[in-house]
Give the backbone structure.
Amino acid sequence: MKITVIGAGYVGLVSGVCFSELGHEVICVDHIEAKVDMLNRGEVPIYEPGLQALIKANRERGRLRFSTDLRASVQPSDIIIIAVGTPSLPSGQANLSFIEQAAQEIGQAMNGYKIIVTKSTVPVGTNERIRDIVAKCTNVPFDIASVPEFLREGTAVQDTMNPDRIVIGTDSPSAGQQLTTLHQSLTSNIIVTDIRSAEMIKYASNAFLATKISFINEIANICEKVGADVTKVAYGMGFDQRIGASFLKAGIGYGGSCFPKDTQALIQIAGQMDYDFKLLKSVVEVNRQQRYNVIRKLVSLLGQLTGKTIGIWGLAFKPETDDVRDSPAYEIIAALSDMGAVVKAYDPIAADNFRHHCDVSGLIYCENAREAAWQSDALCILTEWEEFRQIPLSDIESWLKSPYLIDGRNIYEEEQLAETQLVYYSVGRPGMNRGVKETAPFIML
Ligand code: UDX
């Protein structure tokens, strides 16, 4: 099939590249000229394992092209995929201006029947709005479909090539059939449903996963009070197939480009219909508070933070990505800096993005993990990069000025700690707290 993908961001680029890998002829369109130039030079604007090799291979096979010309790219294709951004407005609502503009430009370019697919996460009813916008611009027949994307950053290629399921929301049986054919080599779990349910499946899935994370984080906070270990609790819970073992890792809360934005958007969507989504509001608030647990623990160890030097390992919202959007590291570092601490940070690949997108005055960027820990009053681990796991605790102990280690991602085990004198705090594992009687009282910040 001939496919045009509009928007070469995370979702659009990975989807387009994967469709070309499956043998389709793909054009990825983006209005940012510098990005398209980069891709045409074989460079990749995002860090995503495996992506660069697929781009190179499929460009060489002549199946993958990049362009800024939407009209010329839409006309030869049978399927047009909209994958532009839907950033949050200050109210939390999704900003649909990029979607609406794409719909209008597609409408103006229509030269024959096409299926217009939306992969961007959009509020319920948006695909119908897209249909109206396109229909105002053309008399050429077309169908619309919502095919939400569930890929995770860091494993985006793998997730796209091996999805748990494909959801196709459409009111056209023939479009449903063609899109089923397009995806059938990827999975046998293809769900064809109505458009509004497909739109809702995406929000409900992300909100549910965010709920699991906030739930286990609150269990971790209670474990700290009652002397249980959250990793053991999660392990024991995960065997129940109704619960499932994934997304039960306690830590400093979720971040990234999807969960924070989509939970807020769903609260707004419900609110517009006069429905108060209390559960999801609590999930968001728990997530916000969880970030500050790191600060509470630092304060309980060091007292006043003014003039104290705090080392930070990890700026990305999770490992294997250079994405810092809504990274917990930002709020934690900003709070430390407001409290007068000197903050030194290291991340294997996300430092440049952090420097450009997160405005924290006075933050010192370090070249390596040792430099961030060196002579610091405490070290905080905020992203569970494999590189950090490989560093012996005895090295950390010898680099720090005071032996305080706050592990926001529970990356160390008891046996590793036994060999050191480090004072160690992790999340929801009070049995592993060393040199400390109890955690700071849970003050809301
Ligand atoms: C998420 C969804 O998983 C994906 O289906 C959707 O399409 C986009 O949003 P992503 O944001 O790439 O993907 O990352 P994910 O791996 O889901 O992690 C999100 C956040 O949750 C990270 O900050 C991560 O550290 C945190 N997390 C995840 C936890 O704190 N605990 C867990 O058990 C799992």
